[in-house]
Amino acid sequence: MFALLETFIAVFETKSFTRAASQCFISQPTATVRIKKLEEELKVQHFSRGQHQEVIPTESAHLLYPKALKTLNDWNELQFSLKNQTPSRKPFKIAASHSSATTVLPLIFKNLIPELEQLNIELMMLDSQEVFDLIRNHEIHFGIIEKPMMDETIETFPLFKDELVLAGKPENDIFFIREAGSGVAHYTHNYLKENNLNPKNLVSVNNNDMIVSQLNAGIGVSLISKRFINENIAFQSLDERYHRIFYGVSFLAEQDKLLKTVIKQIKNLSEF
After folding, report:
1. For residue 221, what is the DSSP state?
2. CA 179-183-189 angle, 5° bins
3. What is the pLDDT of residues 191-230, one digit of tens each?
4. How far apart (Å, rounded) are the C-alpha atoms in residues 191 and 197?
5. What domains can be seen in the chain, in order of their start residue?
6. I want to staple 201 with a disulfide (CB 3.0 to 4.6 A). Which of 17, 46, 134, 174 is the partner?
7. Which Gene3D superfamilies does the entry link to (predicted)?
């Protein structure tokens, strides 16, 4: 039945048996047979031919289409859940700050690949405070933050070095700044204050990729991690006060042996 519904959806969306067959990796005669079988099962016609032999969905097809989509989506979700929620896999949730999620998290994840058969990994990107709060509430197992934050229930340790630079074209008089709560926002406010700068246009952005896309287009400046710099973006290095650390955080009283081993592996990647 699922193959019939899959073919029906393809024909409905493409309005073509030829394109639908190609999309489903079957022959056109097979697609025709499947649609005919579905019509026989449901005792209704789903498609008719127009004057130029175009495929026209019937009223019954329009009624079936959303229900067929939901049925296949539910089936796919069920298959995924059964494959990934087996007792042999332990949940391991990682949350990373915005700057670290797309720069240093891939370095960590690469080292977790050998453990994938034992873990059901979930990755998320949040600001540093949210990451820290989730660790404190034991809602995630490991986090990466951009500023030192302490709690008696949490182990905080230095993980990777980072350098903030002034990137972009200052003549535009547009300064992009990360949102409140971001680790970079704190450094940016300090930079503007100590240099007595009052940008004409201060634009708050909650995503580093959005800032990088503006800088790539030659628009504005921003204080941003050097890890985001490419050959299209001019930048100016700053003094050591703008060198910072990405910190790893984990629940101090973690009891699971496998998770403790995985976290230890991550700690071994430290640049310190």
Report:
1. E
2. 65
3. 999 999 999 999 999 889 999 999 999 999 999 999 999 9
4. 8
5. 2-84 (1.10.10.10), 88-272 (3.40.190.290)
6. 174
7. 3.40.190.290, Winged helix-like DNA-binding domain superfamily/Winged helix DNA-binding domain
Rounded Cα distance between 180 and 26, Å, is 53
pTM: 0.64
Give the pairing type, strands 142-145 and 243-251.
antiparallel
Cβ atoms of 138 and 253 within 8 Å: the answer is no
Residues 96, 243 contacting (CB under 8 angstroms): no
Amino acid at 72: L
For 146-230, where are the E strands, in sequence order?
A: 154-168, 174-178, 201-205, 221-225
Residues 6+ apart with CB under 8 A from 246: 97, 99, 100, 104, 144, 145, 146, 158, 159, 160, 161, 162
pLDDT at 169: 84
Closest CA to 99 of 121, 122, 131, 67: 131
Mean pLDDT on 156-165: 96
Which tokens sit at 21?
A: 């067959």
Query: φ, ψ for residue 143 (rounded to 5)?
Result: -140, 160
Contact yes or no for 57/65 (Cβ under 8 A): yes
Token readout for 58 is 């019937």
Six token digits for residue 40: 């026989």
